[in-house]
Amino acid sequence: MINVGMVGVGCISGIYLKNFAETFHNVKLVAVCDLIRERAEHAKEKYGIPKLYDTMEELFADPEIDLVLNLTRPYQHYEVSRQALLAGKHVYSEKPLGADWEEGTALVDLAREKGLWIGGAPDTFLGAGIQSCRKFIDEGNLGDVIGGRCVMTHRGVESWHPDPDFYYQRGGGPLLDMGPYYITALTNLLGGVTEVYGKSRTTFAERLITAKPHEGEMITVNVPTHYECMMSFESGATVTFLTTFDTYDLKQPNILLYGTKGNLLVPDPNCFGAEKGMKFFNGATKTEEELPLTFDYGENSRCLGVADLAAAIEQGRSPRASYLQTYHVLEVMTGIMKSCETGVPYKMTTTFTRQAPMDPTLPHGVL
The domain 2-120 belongs to what CATH superfamily? Predict the structure, then answer.
């Protein structure tokens, strides 16, 4: 049993709390901490969590805790993860690994120095949708993947998120916020990235919040909010990626891959299942086929990555959602940002080797 302490009990924490309690029993949530104490108190009471700490330093000092779950805001990820590692704890962080390349590098170097694992979101690639697509591709059904396109479009989070300001500050924006879902899915389907190129802009200097409790307040935007990107993969495939908080929903496929045997519609990488379908256009028969899900975890299974990290620690293997992945994905994103600044392609310095796929024969909740 791996004991976990959660730092940050905000909007995303609800699904983690639910899945700790109901699904993944190789990890036990033993402590919570939040700057807004009422949030931590509510979680403690609702889910019967044994301990509540006023500060993260107190939580890190608890010898019972093996792993820290970092659910703070993106610009806080580095310091929270750094202090947890210094305290001798393994870490699982919400995305991104760090707000920039330098932060990610420092955390990876520290984890290696301490002999600890630092893993992180997203873990949606472990769900039924992406795992089923991986199996379909790995079995040769798509042929050689020539390329693809990804589209993530909406007009921002201020119309629905209760505290949207951080999305438009350092560590935020559509690339660092949504990019991890798409790039993680692509690297698990196609392998590592070798070169990236991008263009960006900030369309609106200010944003009006229309969601409660900050309705009527203005946000000053300090990051680009519209990116057009190109990624080249070790396999030879090239994929374009539009990610934006500035346009209306285009109602296009989230990920579409082009193969020598046909085209594959990949489910939304922000989800675990296939809410928007998993389809194959068969080039030989000129027909569109609805593909079945061949793996578990089609429902919202956030915490799956934490459970896999815990299982990996106990089993002495590499976690599927470790820094080996999140560090490569962070370089892809920060490389795109550097390319946007310089106007030239960015060549990757890290490589990525896919971990073993999920095992569909195991009982639900067992890793």
Answer: NAD(P)-binding Rossmann-like Domain (3.40.50.720)
Compute the distance between CA of residue 142 and CA of residue 108 in angstroms, rounded to an integer: 35
Beta-bridged to residue 265, according to DSSP, are: 256, 279
Helices and strands of the chain, counted as H and E runs? 9, 17
Q: Give residue limits of the domains in the chain.
A: 2-120, 124-290
Kindly give the confidence (pLDDT) of every residue in the chain, 367 residues in length, as a single tens digit, with 9 standing for 90 and above: 999 999 999 999 999 999 999 999 999 999 999 999 999 999 999 999 999 999 999 999 999 999 999 999 999 999 999 999 999 999 999 999 999 999 999 999 999 999 999 999 999 999 999 999 999 999 999 999 999 999 999 999 999 999 999 999 999 999 999 999 999 999 999 999 999 999 999 999 999 999 999 999 999 999 999 999 999 999 999 999 999 999 998 888 999 999 999 999 999 999 999 876 799 999 999 999 999 999 999 999 999 999 999 999 999 999 999 999 999 999 999 999 999 999 999 999 999 999 999 999 999 999 9
Q: Report whether 87 contacts 56 (CB < 8 A).
A: no
Fold of 124-290: Dihydrodipicolinate Reductase; domain 2 (3.30.360)
User: Which pair of structure tokens corresponds to residue 131?
Assistant: 């795992």
